Amino acid sequence: MGCCGDQDEEEQEILHPLNPDSQTLTSPTPTSISLPDEFDTVISPMNSNFSALICKDILRSIFENLPLTDLARSACVCRLWSSVASDREIQTRAFKAPWKLKDVIGNPSSGSFWRDNSINRFAISHRLVRQDTVASLAVKYSVQVMDIKRLNNMMSDHGIYSRERLLIPISDPDLLINGICYIELDLYAKREVAVMYLEGRPDRKVNCVLNRVTSDHGKRRVLESLRRSMQVDDGTAQYYFSLSEGDPRAALTEFSEDLRWERTVGLS
To answer: Beta 122-127 vs 165-169: how paired, if at all?
Structure first.
């Protein structure tokens, strides 16, 4: 009994400091530190007192060293930052930097093109000859057959016979080093890509097919693609297609500019 009583007393002594009712723990009162008034200023591009963030020259020197994703985020901060981050030279430099490209030629139909410079944004232009098949091209360029079909919007291998060229996914990023890419809107693939020509420059015949569609069948396909891209009716798509003299890229650019103007004046 006495032994048990002694044990209970020892346990109480051990637990005593943990019992809030039996002992109040006090902590030293934190010392209040007064900061100068200038430390109360919030650093923000909206704060005109912080001149470094509203100076275009300083912003430009900063943005020139940002990766493409951070550059896109910077454009969403305010109008001033957007005007600097949207500079074509800065965008092109950020687009080329990861792949060590020599140059990117052409203007995309939308500024959103510059927001993604992953390897999927690039492709090789292969001009088709009689003996070419999707399988043989997959072996030649060390890519998957399904990747070629997906990039070119092909449902079957037979689609190769109605085309002048195919876009080939790039499997080896080293091909882009010191290369020149051309921004093109491929009518069959229905996407804008940075195309590399291994022979050095675009083929005039293929380029003509891409940018000036004259056949009725091709014109219908392009109008349908424009209608879906613009999300408008047939008449509106036809209007912008005629306005651009058959150039789908110019039609999309003209449509985007009109939408931007409508938003500015408050019509949409």
So the answer is: antiparallel
